């Protein structure tokens, strides 16, 4: 079939992407070809044993299976170290075909003991083949792909079960044990499918592995039983999975015993029993198939892993209560039917999803230990408990109570694992980059750095300005000898110095002179005293008036004046001159005045500082100064920001300033702006809120406003996306296309920043960064994390924007979203 | 200050000439030009300071603001061919802890490709 036709056919039943069709069908067939024969083998297993020994033989059979599985796992581990996965899987299959042939040959001629050997053989077969199947799936698909396709593979297995069961029902009374030949025929066909799967997988593009093994999951090259055991033991999360598997298997075995005991009590003839099992498993698989196809994915998608985890124990709890009250075959059929169908559909999918955050190499080790060994070990534990209960002749009702106790433990473990699952997902993705502000502020004192540069420059400007800068520098406690050295260079020397001559120079050191002659504190006190003298203020006022009258030629003098005022008392008469200096035409004068205003912190300067935000040459200084005003400037700035008649550039700069004042008042002002029907500051406000959230995670953000804006941005994103796809590719649209792409990108990051305001900020940042620049693996983890932490009302609208889909699908989906998004 | 832009291996190189200082700044600042590049999805930027004679505190602010904007979107901004004199001042003020500074253009370009 041409690939396109196959693709369009498969897309009707499964959420498949281009290029996945062949491998998906092969895996579907693989699962079908192991479950169909297994259903035949299992029906014969039950009827042969029960006919020969009755239900009392079940506990020893379970126990024998557990012991033998232990040996098989050890043997399997030894082989898996030495040979490739493909060879291991195919040779296991051949082994089961050959040994199965021996059973077929000797069943008619040997005694009942062969039935007792056949039981564990059949159980080991299913454990090994199922484990190999899921290892193959995990080998080929990444977690998100596997999650998307699990339902379809699962259906293949269930259809196989239906097919195998029907064969048994139809042919059991005619050919009985010869049915095994059908089973082996399907196994042989399966070998070819496995070969095709691995050949196909080898041609797939390089499958990117996670960047580094996590501490939680150390990666080693040794793979063996002990190693597998240690890998599980070292991880709390894998221990939890192991415990869930153990407990659920104990419950399953207990239910299996109750069911088989009631079948044996009710149906007498062996071939009738085989036919019953055939029909039962066939109908069971059919039910499970529909459950898998129609409900499993929807349930997980709708309720998430956290809630679906509890569905199975709850239903089995009801069934167990029922059978404890009325131990009848009908009740047993309901209980066994629920247990098995849920185990094959929902539980299997959930278990595979729980393995998602486990790195592939460790997953392989853990699966061998948990799915192969522990699974059967749990059966052994249950067998011992059943042996004790049957020894004391306690009936089915008591065994139901045993199930109920373990169902309680199962629920508690599920509770724990649902929490652990999300934390492991979080650990699996890393922050890719820190914010620019943090990257700088962690390593640098920007004000100090600028002061050093200013001091150097001031040497060439005026001795007064230089002295004022040196005085400022001296206030810094950590003034390094190198800074002292470089500041002390003569200006002409400075212009030509190099590393060698700088540190070797014997130039005059102004700072050294200062330090030798004056105590820093004494100097500061002296200067403050002089500057606060009435006489000084009067004389300086005259000087200031003269300087301010002059125009451009007095620039240096104005700079000196502006800088000096910063050292005076805020209430001194000279401070009044500062406003004029802030508004001076010279940006150099203005910036010194701005710096001084930040030192004096008088509210009257705030409007002048806001005015300076409009000039790119003083914008940075004004932002820095307003930051130093802190909460006192919030109200004035909030009013300015909210006035749409004011200059947009200045309003944007005000938003930037507010981002550095981390208070509830700032957040409320910014959210009010965001909540406006029309605001030309959306991106700036979101950036500022994001910055505040990252610095002060405890501040509460009004969820209603944030959610409303998130929905609006999602709408905007969908609309732009649809319009962009519909835009003709003509050259004339190039500019418009670029503009729309930019808008898409901005909307996308804004949606995440808003999510970060009411979900854990670090998690949202991690998710965004990995979705933007991560590997295929880390993107999958990021989406899985969002899937688990976002609430349903927002998750259903955010995930479609992120998940990889074909463009036609996305357009269709976005149209749906636009219709369903809250108004 | 004059700025010429060129692109090599998906990295935008800013060849800056003159003095990066407040008084020499035209209508468009260095940070503004960097932001334009970031908006056009060019997030790997190299500032070639070979012909820069002087940087004042405003210039430092401009380079730092450019660095912050680039870092915020997961990009990289690096410096190359900085004069010995400036390098000393950068070291003293610990700017070398923030910026990756390379002796020559090739080693800077190579460092981008390694990431």
Give a quick set of tags describing it.
heterodimer, A: 823 residues, mainly alpha, Growth Hormone, Chain: A, B: 115 residues, alpha/beta, Transcription Regulator spoIIAA, 5 helices, globular
Helix residue percentage of chain A: over 70%
CATH homologous superfamily title of the domain at 20-428 in chain A: MFS general substrate transporter like domains
Shape of chain A: elongated
Per CATH, which architecture of chain B?
Answer: 2-Layer Sandwich
- What gap, in angstroms, lies between the N and C termini of chain B? 31 Å
Order of helices and strands of chain B: EEHEHEHHEH
Radius of gyration of chain A: 38 Å
Please report the distance between the alpha carbons of the first and last residues of chain A. 46 Å
Could you name the CATH topology of chain B? Transcription Regulator spoIIAA
Roughly what fraction of the amino acids of chain B lie in strands?
25-35%
Structure notes:
- Chain A is built from 38 helices and no strands.
- Chain A has 823 residues and is mainly alpha-helical.
- Among the domains of chain A are: 20-428, MFS general substrate transporter like domains (Growth Hormone, Chain: A, Up-down Bundle), CATH 1.20.1250; 703-820, no CATH class.
- Chain B has one domain (2-113): Transcription Regulator spoIIAA (2-Layer Sandwich).
- Chain B is built from five helices and five strands.
- In chain B, strands 1-2-3-4-5 form a five-stranded mixed β-sheet, with helices on both faces.
- In chain B, β3 (44-55), α2 and β4 (76-80) form a beta-alpha-beta unit.
- The longest helix of chain B has 16 residues, at 57-72.
- Classes of the chains: A mainly alpha (823), B alpha/beta (115).
- The interface between A and B is large, with 42 and 36 residues.
């Amino acid at each position: 079939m041409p690939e396109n036709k196959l693709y369009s056919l498969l897309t009707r039943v499964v959420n498949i992407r281009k290029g996945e069709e062949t491998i998906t069908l092969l895996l579907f067939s693989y699962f079908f070809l192991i479950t169909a024969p297994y259903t035949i083998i299992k029906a014969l297993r039950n009827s042969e044993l029960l006919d020969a020994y009755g239900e009392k033989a079940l506990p020893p059979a379970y126990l024998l299976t557990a012991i033998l599985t232990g040996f098989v796992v050890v043997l399997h581990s030894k082989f898996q170290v030495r040979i490739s996965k493909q060879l291991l899987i195919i040779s296991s299959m051949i082994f089961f075909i050959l040994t199965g042939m021996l059973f077929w040959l000797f069943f008619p001629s040997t005694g009942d003991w062969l039935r007792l050997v056949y039981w564990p053989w059949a159980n080991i077969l299913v454990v090994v083949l199922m484990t190999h199947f899921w290892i193959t799936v995990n080998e080929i698909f990444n977690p998100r792909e596997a999650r998307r396709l699990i339902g379809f593979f699962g259906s293949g297995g269930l259809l196989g079960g239906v097919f195998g069961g029907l064969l048994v029902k139809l042919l059991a009374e005619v050919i009985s044990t010869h049915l095994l030949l059908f089973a082996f025929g399907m196994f042989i066909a399966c070998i070819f499918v496995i070969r095709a799967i691995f050949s196909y997988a080898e041609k797939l593009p390089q499958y990117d592995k996670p960047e580094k093994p996590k501490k939680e999951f150390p990666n080693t090259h040794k793979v063996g039983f002990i190693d597998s055991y240690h890998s599980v033991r070292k991880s709390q999360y894998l221990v939890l999975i192991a415990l869930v598997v153990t407990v659920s298997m104990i419950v399953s075995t207990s239910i299996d015993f109750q069911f088989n005991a009631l079948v044996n009590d009710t149906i007498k003839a062996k071939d009738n029993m085989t036919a019953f099992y055939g029909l039962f498993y066939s109908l069971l698989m059919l039910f499970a198939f529909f459950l898998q196809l129609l409900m499993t994915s929807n349930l997980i998608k709708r309720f998430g892993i956290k809630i679906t985890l509890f569905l199975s124990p709850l239903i089995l709890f009801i069934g167990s209560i029922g059978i404890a009250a009325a131990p009848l075959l009908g009740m047993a059929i309901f209980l066994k039917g629920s247990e098995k169908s849920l185990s094959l559909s929902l539980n299997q999918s959930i278990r595979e999803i729980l393995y998602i955050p486990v790195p592939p190499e460790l997953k392989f080790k853990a699966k061998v230990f948990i799915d192969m060994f522990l699974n059967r070990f749990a059966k052994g534990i249950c067998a011992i408990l059943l042996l004790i209960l049957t020894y004391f002749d306690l009936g089915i009702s008591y065994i139901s109570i045993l199930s109920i106790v373990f169902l309680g433990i199962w629920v508690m473990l599920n509770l724990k694992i649902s929490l652990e699952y999300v934390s492991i997902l979080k650990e699996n993705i890393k922050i890719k980059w820190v914010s620019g502000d943090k990257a700088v502020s962690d390593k640098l004192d920007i004000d100090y750095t600028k002061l050093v540069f200013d001091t150097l420059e001031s040497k060439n400007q005026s001795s007064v300005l230089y002295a004022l800068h040196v005085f400022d520098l001296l206030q810094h406690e950590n003034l390094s000898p190198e800074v002292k050295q470089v500041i002390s260079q003569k200006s002409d020397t400075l212009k030509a110095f190099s590393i060698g001559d700088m540190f070797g120079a014997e130039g005059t050191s102004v700072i050294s002179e200062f330090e030798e002659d004056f105590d820093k504190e004494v100097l500061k006190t002296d200067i403050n005293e002089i500057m606060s003298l009435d006489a000084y203020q009067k004389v300086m006022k005259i000087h200031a008036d003269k300087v301010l009258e002059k125009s451009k030629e007095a620039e240096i003098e104005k700079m000196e004046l502006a800088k000096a005022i910063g050292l005076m008392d805020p209430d001194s008469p000279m401070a009044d001159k500062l406003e004029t200096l802030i508004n001076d035409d010279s940006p150099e004068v203005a910036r010194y005045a701005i710096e001084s205003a930040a030192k004096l912190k008088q509210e009257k300067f705030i409007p002048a500082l806001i005015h300076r935000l409009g000039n790119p040459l003083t914008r940075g200084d004004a932002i820095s100064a307003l930051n130093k005003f802190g909460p006192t400037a919030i109200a004035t700035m909030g009013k300015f920001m909210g006035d749409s008649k004011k200059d947009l550039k200045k309003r944007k700069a005000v938003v930037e300033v507010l981002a550095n004042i981390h208070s509830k008042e700032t957040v409320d002002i910014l959210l009010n702006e965001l909540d406006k029907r029309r605001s030309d500051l959306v991106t700036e406000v979101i950036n500022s809120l994001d910055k505040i959230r990252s610095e002060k995670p405890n501040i509460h953000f009004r969820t209603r406003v944030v959610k409303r804006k998130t929905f609006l941005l999602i709408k905007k994103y969908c609309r732009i996306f649809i319009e962009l796809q519909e835009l003709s590719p003509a050259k004339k649209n190039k500019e418009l296309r670029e503009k729309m792409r930019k808008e898409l990108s901005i909307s996308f990051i804004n949606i995440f920043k808003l999510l970060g305001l009411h979900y854990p900020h670090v998690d949202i940042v991690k998710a965004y960064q990995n979705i933007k620049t991560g590997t295929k693996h880390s993107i999958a983890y990021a989406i899985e994390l969002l899937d688990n932490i976002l609430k349903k009302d927002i998750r259903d609208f955010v995930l479609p924007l992120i998940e990889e889909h074909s463009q036609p699908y996305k357009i269709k989906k976005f149209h749906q979203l636009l219709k369903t998004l809250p108004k | 200050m004059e700025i010429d832009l060129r692109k090599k291996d998906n990295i935008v190189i800013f060849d800056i000439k003159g003095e990066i200082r407040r008084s020499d700044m035209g209508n468009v600042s260095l940070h503004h030009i960097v932001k334009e590049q970031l908006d056009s999805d060019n997030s790997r930027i190299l500032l070639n300071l070979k012909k820069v004679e002087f940087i004042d505190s405003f210039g430092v602010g401009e380079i730092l603001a450019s660095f912050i904007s680039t870092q915020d979107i997961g990009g990289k901004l690096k410096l190359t061919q900085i004069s010995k004199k400036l390098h000393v001042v950068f070291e003293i003020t610990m700017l070398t802890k923030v910026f990756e500074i390379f002796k020559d253009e090739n080693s800077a370009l190579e460092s981008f490709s390694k990431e």
